[in-house]
Amino acid sequence: MKEKKQILGLNRFEKNERVALDAGLANQIVRRQTTQGASSVLFYQQPIEMVSAQGVWMYDAAGNKYLDMYNNVPSVGHCHPKVVEAMYRQAGLLNTNTRYLFPVLERYSETLLATFPAPLTNVVFTCTGSESNDIALRIARMATGRQGIIVTESAYHGNTTAVMEVSPSGHKRQPLPPYVRTVPAPDASTLQPGQRVEEVFADAVQSAMDSLAAEGFGCAALLVDTIFSSDGVYADPPGFLGLAVARVRAGGGLFIADEVQPGFGRTGTHYWCFQRHGLVPDIVTLGKPMGNGFPMAAVVTRPALLERFSQETEYFNTFGGNPVAAAVGLAVLQVIREEELIANAGHCGHYLRAGLRSLTVQYPAISDVRGAGLFNAVEFRQPDSKEPDTALTQQVINELKSEGILIGAAGAYGNSLKIRPPLCFSISNADFFIDKFAAVMSRCHRN
Protein backbone atom coordinates (compact mmCIF):
# COMPACT_ATOMS: atom_id res chain seq x y z
CA MET A 1 0.00 0.00 0.00
CA LYS A 2 1.38 3.39 -1.03
CA GLU A 3 2.13 5.61 1.98
CA LYS A 4 -0.14 8.62 2.32
CA LYS A 5 1.52 12.04 2.36
CA GLN A 6 1.04 15.30 4.20
CA ILE A 7 0.58 18.05 1.65
CA LEU A 8 2.67 20.67 3.47
CA GLY A 9 5.56 18.23 3.68
CA LEU A 10 5.67 17.53 -0.05
CA ASN A 11 7.16 20.86 -1.07
CA ARG A 12 8.60 21.88 2.27
CA PHE A 13 12.08 23.39 2.41
CA GLU A 14 14.58 21.10 4.11
CA LYS A 15 18.22 22.08 4.48
CA ASN A 16 20.27 20.19 1.91
CA GLU A 17 24.01 20.63 1.62
CA ARG A 18 23.79 19.83 -2.10
CA VAL A 19 21.58 22.86 -2.75
CA ALA A 20 23.59 26.09 -2.74
CA LEU A 21 22.03 29.07 -0.99
CA ASP A 22 23.50 32.56 -1.21
CA ALA A 23 24.52 34.17 2.08
CA GLY A 24 21.60 36.61 2.22
CA LEU A 25 18.95 33.95 1.66
CA ALA A 26 20.63 31.56 4.10
CA ASN A 27 20.65 34.28 6.77
CA GLN A 28 16.95 34.99 6.29
CA ILE A 29 16.13 31.30 6.59
CA VAL A 30 18.08 31.09 9.86
CA ARG A 31 16.25 34.13 11.25
CA ARG A 32 12.88 32.64 10.29
CA GLN A 33 13.64 29.27 11.82
CA THR A 34 15.16 30.81 14.95
CA THR A 35 12.09 32.91 15.70
CA GLN A 36 9.37 30.49 14.54
CA GLY A 37 11.08 27.23 15.39
CA ALA A 38 9.64 23.94 14.23
CA SER A 39 6.39 25.61 13.12
CA SER A 40 8.13 27.43 10.27
CA VAL A 41 7.07 26.23 6.81
CA LEU A 42 8.93 27.44 3.73
CA PHE A 43 8.41 26.10 0.22
CA TYR A 44 10.89 24.92 -2.42
CA GLN A 45 14.44 23.62 -2.31
CA GLN A 46 15.49 27.26 -2.58
CA PRO A 47 12.92 29.41 -0.74
CA ILE A 48 11.78 32.62 -2.40
CA GLU A 49 12.00 36.12 -0.92
CA MET A 50 8.88 37.79 -2.32
CA VAL A 51 8.69 41.59 -2.50
CA SER A 52 5.55 42.44 -4.48
CA ALA A 53 2.61 41.06 -6.46
CA GLN A 54 0.02 42.29 -8.94
CA GLY A 55 -2.81 40.39 -10.60
CA VAL A 56 -1.63 36.85 -11.35
CA TRP A 57 2.08 37.67 -10.94
CA MET A 58 4.43 37.66 -7.94
CA TYR A 59 7.93 39.20 -7.90
CA ASP A 60 10.98 38.18 -5.87
CA ALA A 61 13.90 40.19 -4.52
CA ALA A 62 16.08 39.23 -7.49
CA GLY A 63 13.58 40.66 -9.97
CA ASN A 64 12.17 37.34 -11.14
CA LYS A 65 8.45 37.08 -11.75
CA TYR A 66 6.24 34.06 -11.15
CA LEU A 67 2.83 33.14 -12.47
CA ASP A 68 0.80 32.29 -9.37
CA MET A 69 -1.11 29.09 -10.14
CA TYR A 70 -1.66 28.11 -6.53
CA ASN A 71 -2.68 30.90 -4.17
CA ASN A 72 -6.47 31.23 -4.13
CA VAL A 73 -6.49 33.71 -1.23
CA PRO A 74 -6.04 36.79 -3.50
CA SER A 75 -9.11 35.61 -5.36
CA VAL A 76 -9.62 38.62 -7.66
CA GLY A 77 -5.88 39.17 -8.13
CA HIS A 78 -2.95 40.21 -5.98
CA CYS A 79 -3.19 43.82 -4.75
CA HIS A 80 -6.29 44.61 -6.81
CA PRO A 81 -6.42 48.44 -6.85
CA LYS A 82 -10.13 48.65 -6.04
CA VAL A 83 -9.72 46.35 -3.03
CA VAL A 84 -6.59 48.15 -1.83
CA GLU A 85 -8.35 51.51 -2.14
CA ALA A 86 -11.36 50.29 -0.15
CA MET A 87 -9.07 48.97 2.59
CA TYR A 88 -7.06 52.20 2.75
CA ARG A 89 -10.08 54.51 2.68
CA GLN A 90 -12.02 52.68 5.43
CA ALA A 91 -8.93 52.23 7.64
CA GLY A 92 -8.51 56.01 7.55
CA LEU A 93 -12.09 56.57 8.72
CA LEU A 94 -12.98 53.91 11.29
CA ASN A 95 -12.09 50.40 12.36
CA THR A 96 -13.79 48.94 15.42
CA ASN A 97 -15.95 46.06 16.57
CA THR A 98 -19.55 45.29 15.62
CA ARG A 99 -21.11 46.53 18.87
CA TYR A 100 -21.58 49.77 16.96
CA LEU A 101 -23.59 50.46 13.84
CA PHE A 102 -21.78 51.30 10.62
CA PRO A 103 -23.72 51.11 7.33
CA VAL A 104 -20.92 49.50 5.32
CA LEU A 105 -21.42 46.24 7.27
CA GLU A 106 -25.15 46.11 6.57
CA ARG A 107 -24.53 46.89 2.92
CA TYR A 108 -21.93 44.16 2.67
CA SER A 109 -24.07 41.63 4.53
CA GLU A 110 -27.02 42.23 2.21
CA THR A 111 -24.85 42.05 -0.90
CA LEU A 112 -23.17 38.83 0.24
CA LEU A 113 -26.40 37.12 1.27
CA ALA A 114 -27.98 38.01 -2.09
CA THR A 115 -25.58 35.50 -3.67
CA PHE A 116 -27.06 32.67 -1.56
CA PRO A 117 -30.31 30.77 -2.09
CA ALA A 118 -33.09 30.94 0.48
CA PRO A 119 -33.32 30.07 3.34
CA LEU A 120 -29.63 30.93 3.92
CA THR A 121 -30.37 34.45 5.12
CA ASN A 122 -28.18 34.98 8.21
CA VAL A 123 -24.43 35.56 8.37
CA VAL A 124 -21.97 35.42 11.27
CA PHE A 125 -18.63 37.11 10.62
CA THR A 126 -15.31 35.72 11.80
CA CYS A 127 -11.64 36.29 10.95
CA THR A 128 -10.59 32.90 9.58
CA GLY A 129 -12.03 29.83 7.90
CA SER A 130 -10.94 27.81 10.93
CA GLU A 131 -13.15 29.94 13.17
CA SER A 132 -16.02 29.56 10.71
CA ASN A 133 -15.77 25.78 10.63
CA ASP A 134 -15.48 25.71 14.42
CA ILE A 135 -18.77 27.61 14.72
CA ALA A 136 -20.39 25.41 12.06
CA LEU A 137 -19.57 22.30 14.10
CA ARG A 138 -21.00 23.89 17.23
CA ILE A 139 -24.21 24.90 15.45
CA ALA A 140 -24.67 21.40 14.02
CA ARG A 141 -24.11 19.69 17.35
CA MET A 142 -26.42 22.03 19.22
CA ALA A 143 -29.16 21.71 16.59
CA THR A 144 -29.06 17.92 16.40
CA GLY A 145 -28.03 16.99 19.92
CA ARG A 146 -25.42 14.69 18.39
CA GLN A 147 -21.65 14.70 18.29
CA GLY A 148 -20.56 12.67 15.25
CA ILE A 149 -19.03 14.32 12.17
CA ILE A 150 -18.30 12.72 8.78
CA VAL A 151 -15.44 14.04 6.60
CA THR A 152 -13.35 12.74 3.72
CA GLU A 153 -10.12 10.84 4.27
CA SER A 154 -7.72 13.65 3.32
CA ALA A 155 -9.86 16.61 4.34
CA TYR A 156 -8.48 19.83 5.76
CA HIS A 157 -10.89 22.26 7.45
CA GLY A 158 -8.66 24.42 9.65
CA ASN A 159 -6.48 24.50 12.73
CA THR A 160 -8.46 25.15 15.90
CA THR A 161 -8.64 22.21 18.29
CA ALA A 162 -12.17 21.28 17.24
CA VAL A 163 -11.52 21.72 13.52
CA MET A 164 -8.23 19.82 13.57
CA GLU A 165 -10.23 16.89 14.92
CA VAL A 166 -12.08 16.78 11.59
CA SER A 167 -8.99 17.46 9.42
CA PRO A 168 -7.33 14.09 8.76
CA SER A 169 -4.69 15.59 6.46
CA GLY A 170 -3.37 17.73 9.31
CA HIS A 171 -2.47 14.81 11.57
CA LYS A 172 0.99 13.25 11.62
CA ARG A 173 0.45 10.61 14.30
CA GLN A 174 -2.52 11.43 16.50
CA PRO A 175 -5.62 9.35 15.65
CA LEU A 176 -8.94 11.01 14.97
CA PRO A 177 -11.37 11.11 17.91
CA PRO A 178 -13.97 8.32 18.13
CA TYR A 179 -16.84 10.63 17.10
CA VAL A 180 -15.27 11.40 13.68
CA ARG A 181 -15.65 9.10 10.67
CA THR A 182 -13.86 9.39 7.34
CA VAL A 183 -15.09 8.32 3.92
CA PRO A 184 -13.11 7.95 0.68
CA ALA A 185 -13.00 10.87 -1.70
CA PRO A 186 -15.47 10.67 -4.62
CA ASP A 187 -12.84 9.49 -7.09
CA ALA A 188 -14.40 8.07 -10.26
CA SER A 189 -11.15 6.32 -11.22
CA THR A 190 -11.54 3.90 -8.30
CA LEU A 191 -14.98 2.67 -9.31
CA GLN A 192 -15.77 -0.84 -10.46
CA PRO A 193 -17.74 -1.37 -13.70
CA GLY A 194 -21.36 -0.36 -13.22
CA GLN A 195 -20.71 1.75 -10.13
CA ARG A 196 -21.66 5.43 -9.96
CA VAL A 197 -19.87 8.12 -7.98
CA GLU A 198 -22.99 9.36 -6.20
CA GLU A 199 -24.04 5.90 -5.08
CA VAL A 200 -20.61 4.79 -3.86
CA PHE A 201 -20.09 8.04 -1.98
CA ALA A 202 -23.56 7.94 -0.44
CA ASP A 203 -23.11 4.31 0.62
CA ALA A 204 -19.84 5.22 2.35
CA VAL A 205 -21.56 8.09 4.14
CA GLN A 206 -24.40 5.79 5.18
CA SER A 207 -21.93 3.27 6.63
CA ALA A 208 -20.25 6.07 8.58
CA MET A 209 -23.64 7.20 9.91
CA ASP A 210 -24.51 3.66 10.97
CA SER A 211 -21.17 3.31 12.76
CA LEU A 212 -21.63 6.59 14.63
CA ALA A 213 -25.14 5.56 15.64
CA ALA A 214 -23.97 2.16 16.84
CA GLU A 215 -21.41 3.78 19.14
CA GLY A 216 -23.92 6.27 20.55
CA PHE A 217 -22.55 9.43 18.94
CA GLY A 218 -25.09 9.88 16.16
CA CYS A 219 -24.39 11.97 13.09
CA ALA A 220 -24.52 15.73 13.61
CA ALA A 221 -23.22 16.63 10.15
CA LEU A 222 -21.53 15.73 6.92
CA LEU A 223 -18.77 18.34 6.43
CA VAL A 224 -17.13 18.56 3.01
CA ASP A 225 -15.05 21.00 1.04
CA THR A 226 -17.39 21.01 -1.95
CA ILE A 227 -14.63 20.47 -4.52
CA PHE A 228 -12.67 18.07 -2.27
CA SER A 229 -9.53 20.08 -2.79
CA SER A 230 -7.25 18.43 -0.22
CA ASP A 231 -8.43 15.01 -1.41
CA GLY A 232 -7.23 15.78 -4.93
CA VAL A 233 -10.00 17.96 -6.52
CA TYR A 234 -13.18 16.10 -7.47
CA ALA A 235 -15.84 18.17 -9.17
CA ASP A 236 -17.76 15.79 -11.42
CA PRO A 237 -20.31 14.70 -12.23
CA PRO A 238 -22.30 17.75 -11.09
CA GLY A 239 -24.96 16.67 -8.63
CA PHE A 240 -23.17 13.66 -7.16
CA LEU A 241 -23.34 15.08 -3.63
CA GLY A 242 -27.13 15.07 -3.60
CA LEU A 243 -27.72 11.46 -2.61
CA ALA A 244 -25.27 11.53 0.31
CA VAL A 245 -26.77 14.76 1.64
CA ALA A 246 -30.28 13.30 1.35
CA ARG A 247 -29.23 10.30 3.44
CA VAL A 248 -27.63 12.47 6.10
CA ARG A 249 -30.75 14.59 6.38
CA ALA A 250 -32.99 11.52 6.46
CA GLY A 251 -30.95 10.40 9.45
CA GLY A 252 -31.40 13.73 11.22
CA GLY A 253 -28.00 15.25 10.41
CA LEU A 254 -27.02 18.49 8.71
CA PHE A 255 -24.92 19.31 5.66
CA ILE A 256 -22.04 21.78 6.12
CA ALA A 257 -20.55 23.08 2.87
CA ASP A 258 -16.99 24.31 3.33
CA GLU A 259 -16.64 26.93 0.57
CA VAL A 260 -13.40 28.45 1.85
CA GLN A 261 -11.47 27.25 -1.22
CA PRO A 262 -14.07 26.64 -3.97
CA GLY A 263 -16.33 29.63 -3.27
CA PHE A 264 -16.67 33.11 -4.76
CA GLY A 265 -17.06 31.97 -8.36
CA ARG A 266 -13.94 29.85 -8.60
CA THR A 267 -15.68 26.87 -10.20
CA GLY A 268 -16.89 29.00 -13.09
CA THR A 269 -20.68 28.68 -13.15
CA HIS A 270 -22.00 29.90 -9.78
CA TYR A 271 -20.82 31.88 -6.79
CA TRP A 272 -20.76 28.68 -4.73
CA CYS A 273 -19.58 25.20 -5.63
CA PHE A 274 -22.50 23.57 -3.80
CA GLN A 275 -24.75 25.08 -6.48
CA ARG A 276 -23.12 22.75 -9.06
CA HIS A 277 -24.75 19.94 -7.11
CA GLY A 278 -28.21 21.52 -6.98
CA LEU A 279 -28.04 21.68 -3.19
CA VAL A 280 -28.90 24.15 -0.46
CA PRO A 281 -26.69 23.41 2.56
CA ASP A 282 -27.76 23.91 6.15
CA ILE A 283 -24.53 25.77 6.94
CA VAL A 284 -21.89 27.30 4.63
CA THR A 285 -18.42 28.40 5.73
CA LEU A 286 -16.31 31.04 3.99
CA GLY A 287 -12.70 32.17 4.41
CA LYS A 288 -9.95 34.52 3.31
CA PRO A 289 -10.72 34.66 -0.45
CA MET A 290 -13.75 36.77 0.52
CA GLY A 291 -11.32 39.55 1.46
CA ASN A 292 -8.75 38.92 -1.27
CA GLY A 293 -6.30 38.07 1.50
CA PHE A 294 -7.57 40.42 4.19
CA PRO A 295 -8.30 38.24 7.26
CA MET A 296 -12.04 37.82 7.15
CA ALA A 297 -14.41 34.86 7.04
CA ALA A 298 -18.03 33.97 7.73
CA VAL A 299 -20.71 31.40 8.45
CA VAL A 300 -23.97 31.56 6.49
CA THR A 301 -26.94 29.61 7.75
CA ARG A 302 -30.68 29.43 8.35
CA PRO A 303 -32.16 31.77 11.00
CA ALA A 304 -33.61 28.88 13.00
CA LEU A 305 -30.19 27.24 13.35
CA LEU A 306 -28.52 30.50 14.36
CA GLU A 307 -31.31 31.18 16.86
CA ARG A 308 -30.73 27.83 18.54
CA PHE A 309 -26.97 28.47 18.65
CA SER A 310 -27.49 31.91 20.18
CA GLN A 311 -29.78 30.48 22.85
CA GLU A 312 -27.06 28.08 23.94
CA THR A 313 -23.99 30.33 23.84
CA GLU A 314 -22.99 33.99 24.12
CA TYR A 315 -20.97 34.38 20.92
CA PHE A 316 -19.11 37.53 19.92
CA ASN A 317 -16.11 37.99 17.64
CA THR A 318 -14.31 41.24 18.40
CA PHE A 319 -12.81 41.72 14.96
CA GLY A 320 -15.18 39.67 12.80
CA GLY A 321 -17.16 41.98 10.52
CA ASN A 322 -15.13 45.08 11.35
CA PRO A 323 -15.58 48.13 9.07
CA VAL A 324 -12.39 47.54 7.07
CA ALA A 325 -13.33 43.90 6.48
CA ALA A 326 -16.80 44.93 5.34
CA ALA A 327 -15.42 47.54 2.91
CA VAL A 328 -12.89 45.09 1.52
CA GLY A 329 -15.43 42.28 1.17
CA LEU A 330 -17.84 44.60 -0.64
CA ALA A 331 -15.09 45.66 -3.04
CA VAL A 332 -14.29 42.00 -3.80
CA LEU A 333 -17.93 41.28 -4.69
CA GLN A 334 -18.04 44.39 -6.89
CA VAL A 335 -14.89 43.33 -8.73
CA ILE A 336 -16.25 39.81 -9.30
CA ARG A 337 -19.38 41.31 -10.85
CA GLU A 338 -17.83 44.20 -12.80
CA GLU A 339 -14.99 42.14 -14.28
CA GLU A 340 -17.25 39.13 -14.93
CA LEU A 341 -14.80 36.87 -13.14
CA ILE A 342 -17.16 33.92 -12.76
CA ALA A 343 -17.63 33.68 -16.52
CA ASN A 344 -13.89 34.21 -16.94
CA ALA A 345 -13.18 31.30 -14.59
CA GLY A 346 -15.46 29.06 -16.61
CA HIS A 347 -14.03 30.05 -19.99
CA CYS A 348 -10.34 30.06 -19.05
CA GLY A 349 -10.68 26.91 -16.95
CA HIS A 350 -12.18 24.99 -19.87
CA TYR A 351 -9.37 26.20 -22.14
CA LEU A 352 -6.71 25.27 -19.59
CA ARG A 353 -8.05 21.74 -19.06
CA ALA A 354 -8.27 21.15 -22.80
CA GLY A 355 -4.65 22.21 -23.25
CA LEU A 356 -3.46 20.00 -20.41
CA ARG A 357 -5.43 17.02 -21.68
CA SER A 358 -3.76 17.40 -25.06
CA LEU A 359 -0.48 16.44 -23.36
CA THR A 360 -1.71 13.14 -21.91
CA VAL A 361 -0.94 11.10 -25.04
CA GLN A 362 2.65 12.32 -25.14
CA TYR A 363 3.17 11.94 -21.39
CA PRO A 364 1.39 8.84 -20.05
CA ALA A 365 2.45 9.70 -16.48
CA ILE A 366 -0.39 12.25 -16.60
CA SER A 367 -3.19 9.94 -15.52
CA ASP A 368 -5.96 12.52 -15.20
CA VAL A 369 -6.84 16.18 -15.69
CA ARG A 370 -9.95 17.24 -13.80
CA GLY A 371 -11.69 20.16 -12.14
CA ALA A 372 -14.16 22.98 -12.67
CA GLY A 373 -13.57 26.60 -13.56
CA LEU A 374 -10.22 27.73 -12.20
CA PHE A 375 -9.89 24.93 -9.66
CA ASN A 376 -8.15 22.00 -11.30
CA ALA A 377 -5.80 19.07 -10.78
CA VAL A 378 -3.29 17.15 -12.86
CA GLU A 379 -2.69 13.68 -11.46
CA PHE A 380 0.50 11.65 -11.96
CA ARG A 381 0.73 7.85 -11.82
CA GLN A 382 3.42 5.46 -12.92
CA PRO A 383 2.31 4.27 -16.38
CA ASP A 384 2.97 0.57 -15.78
CA SER A 385 1.95 -0.01 -12.17
CA LYS A 386 -0.60 2.84 -11.96
CA GLU A 387 0.83 3.64 -8.53
CA PRO A 388 0.65 7.31 -7.43
CA ASP A 389 3.82 9.07 -8.55
CA THR A 390 4.57 11.42 -5.67
CA ALA A 391 8.22 11.82 -6.63
CA LEU A 392 7.32 13.07 -10.10
CA THR A 393 4.86 15.54 -8.61
CA GLN A 394 7.55 16.99 -6.36
CA GLN A 395 9.97 17.20 -9.27
CA VAL A 396 7.43 18.97 -11.48
CA ILE A 397 6.62 21.47 -8.73
CA ASN A 398 10.26 22.47 -8.33
CA GLU A 399 10.94 22.45 -12.08
CA LEU A 400 7.95 24.73 -12.66
CA LYS A 401 9.31 27.11 -10.05
CA SER A 402 12.49 27.38 -12.12
CA GLU A 403 10.27 28.22 -15.12
CA GLY A 404 8.56 31.04 -13.22
CA ILE A 405 5.42 29.20 -12.08
CA LEU A 406 4.22 28.64 -8.51
CA ILE A 407 2.10 25.55 -7.89
CA GLY A 408 1.38 23.01 -5.14
CA ALA A 409 0.20 19.46 -4.52
CA ALA A 410 -2.99 17.74 -3.40
CA GLY A 411 -4.39 14.29 -2.81
CA ALA A 412 -3.89 11.54 -0.27
CA TYR A 413 -0.57 10.59 -1.85
CA GLY A 414 0.44 14.08 -2.96
CA ASN A 415 0.49 12.97 -6.58
CA SER A 416 -1.69 15.72 -8.03
CA LEU A 417 -0.90 19.31 -8.92
CA LYS A 418 -3.41 21.68 -7.34
CA ILE A 419 -4.11 24.50 -9.81
CA ARG A 420 -5.86 27.60 -8.40
CA PRO A 421 -4.76 30.86 -10.05
CA PRO A 422 -6.48 34.16 -9.23
CA LEU A 423 -9.80 34.62 -11.01
CA CYS A 424 -8.32 37.28 -13.32
CA PHE A 425 -6.30 34.50 -15.00
CA SER A 426 -6.37 34.86 -18.80
CA ILE A 427 -6.08 32.73 -21.93
CA SER A 428 -2.54 34.06 -22.46
CA ASN A 429 -1.69 33.01 -18.89
CA ALA A 430 -3.06 29.54 -19.70
CA ASP A 431 -0.88 29.34 -22.83
CA PHE A 432 2.17 30.36 -20.80
CA PHE A 433 1.48 27.69 -18.19
CA ILE A 434 0.77 24.94 -20.73
CA ASP A 435 4.00 25.71 -22.64
CA LYS A 436 6.10 25.70 -19.47
CA PHE A 437 4.39 22.57 -18.14
CA ALA A 438 5.06 20.77 -21.43
CA ALA A 439 8.72 21.78 -21.28
CA VAL A 440 9.02 20.48 -17.72
CA MET A 441 7.29 17.22 -18.60
CA SER A 442 9.68 16.78 -21.53
CA ARG A 443 12.68 17.11 -19.21
CA CYS A 444 11.17 14.82 -16.56
CA HIS A 445 10.24 12.29 -19.23
CA ARG A 446 13.83 12.13 -20.51
CA ASN A 447 15.13 11.66 -16.98
Which range does the strand content fall in?
A: 15-25%
For this structure, the CATH topology of the largest domain is Aspartate Aminotransferase, domain 2
Number of helices: 13
Spatial order of strands in the largest sheet: 4-10-9-8-7-5-6
**SS elements, strand count:** 15
- CATH architecture verdict of the largest domain: 3-Layer(aba) Sandwich
In this structure, how is the largest beta sheet organized? 7 strands, mixed
Q: Averaged pLDDT, please?
A: 93
Provide the gyration radius in Å. 22 Å
The rough form would be described as globular
Give the count of structural domains: 2
CATH class membership of the largest domain: Alpha Beta
The low-pLDDT segments are: none
Secondary-structure element order, N to C: HHEEEHHEHEHEHEHEEEHHHEEHEEEH
Query: Helix content range of the residues, please?
Result: 25-40%
Label the structural class: alpha/beta
